Amino acid sequence: MIETINEDKVKSTKYLMVFKGKRYTYGIGGETRNSLYHLHNGNDIHIYTTCKHGKKWKEFVDERCDQDNAEYDKHDYQIMMKNSTFCLVPRGRRLGSYRFLEALSFGCIPIVLSNSWVLPFSEIIDWPSAVVMGDERLVFQIPDHIRSLSRFEIESMRLQGIFLYNNYFSSINRILMTTISIIEDRINTHWCHETFQWNVANKSPLTPLWIDQRYNNMIESFPQYGSMMIDKHGARGFTAIIAVSRVISYYQLNKFLRASLLSSKFVRRILILWSLRTAVFKQLLHLQSTHPSLILIEISSTNNNEQQSSMNSNRFTCCFNHTAVTTDAIFHFDPESNLITEEIDFAYLVWESFSERLIGFSARDHYFDNAKNQWTYTSKWTNQYSIILFDAVIYHKYYNYLYYEHIYLKNINSTWNFDEECSGLAFNFLISHIIRESPLKVTQRKKTISGGTLFDSWLAWIDRKSCFQKLIKFYGYIPLIKSKIRFEPLLYKDVVSSMRKKYRKLEMIV
């Protein structure tokens, strides 16, 4: 991931490292703090200590106390911390110190000098991403270490520290609610948050969200528990979704339905979303009368733009709350698809093993354009991919719920264009953002649609490139993850008897 570092923010600090506090001339904590004055250089590292502590401090004064006390009173504690990049947090009378939270609140990176101190909420917070963990035995190596950090590392640590403080420590209420959330995760381990969820700053309107309990309170209803889903309530099979928003050939659609889709042993329902009142629609009504699993859903609208937006919203919203949808697997097809039954069945079996992934046939990639200094979408066929097109794709219906609740509803009144190409890309971003894994490609097929012109493909490419930039701004980064994996059937193109192969026809497809 390439990010732009705000160098001005890094340069704005007056000091590199500061400390102002009690020296403890006797008792616990004195050994570490008494050696800190060696780090003071009067330039970018400022260390000020005082011997005044407790009623008996005068009994333990040394030759440095008078000078230390005089310098100590000349400097303001908060001003120093606000104007420093790093703040020393040595042990005091106890291992921990409230100075640690004060440093985070000022945007000052804490340097912890307290061996064996377990930092607060350490079971969920990745502290090394926001804090420098020093060693009390190696105090004099600290300046060299922090000077070796890059501007990117320093800026990242400062921003992460501010995020952690604001989210978990900025008030008693936040500390209490964080504690309760951790206890809840310990009790309900099947609902617990992933570690990265606690540590990802809210860079986008949609934060990582594995489980939204508003969707369902049954654990087997979520994609990461795919094996439990199949074993517990036998929800095998998929619901096919075909969205028709353009003029198509009835012959091609009828051929795909009869020869491929209806012949699949895993298909349970076929929902055809139709927005065009044509002769093809009437012919499909006749086909529906002979196939109970085929359901036609008419989408009405007043104009083309509204029709397109309505179609693309319904192709997702209908799939998690429609009474006809009895499966967790949703298989999207283009109305002019030329997939065969064996391809469809094989893709479904792959999905059963990876029910949290987005699985399909047509793969695309993204790359960083040095000339334009930005990430961009590419339709070229490469040896790796990060995107699966929605001409033929299977995934868990839970993602339809997340897309509708967290993407569509939040942007329905904006300038966001919910066309077919952008919706497919948005789904890729959403799933990669949530699971932190790549989509999966099945079989060697590169094209799954028989129709379409070169001009149509060019327009689709332009739409995807434009949408790609919008999605980057929406999320604040690129969640897409690259992969080189392609799934093929067992014994694929092996020199053995064809009778031993389960999906023999796949070898004839190019």
From TrEMBL:
Topology of the protein relative to the lipid bilayer: Single-pass type II membrane protein
Primary localisation category: endoplasmic reticulum
Family note: Belongs to the glycosyltransferase 47 family.
Subcellular location(s) per record: Endoplasmic reticulum membrane
Keyword Signal among record annotations: no
PANTHER family reported in the protein's UniProt record: ACETYLGLUCOSAMINYLTRANSFERASE, EXOSTOSIN GLYCOSYLTRANSFERASE 1
A family per Pfam: Glyco_transf_64
Pathway: Protein modification; protein glycosylation
Record keywords: Disulfide bond, Endoplasmic reticulum, Glycoprotein, Glycosyltransferase, Membrane, Signal-anchor, Transferase, Transmembrane, Transmembrane helix
One GO MF term: glycosyltransferase activity
Protein name: Exostosin-1
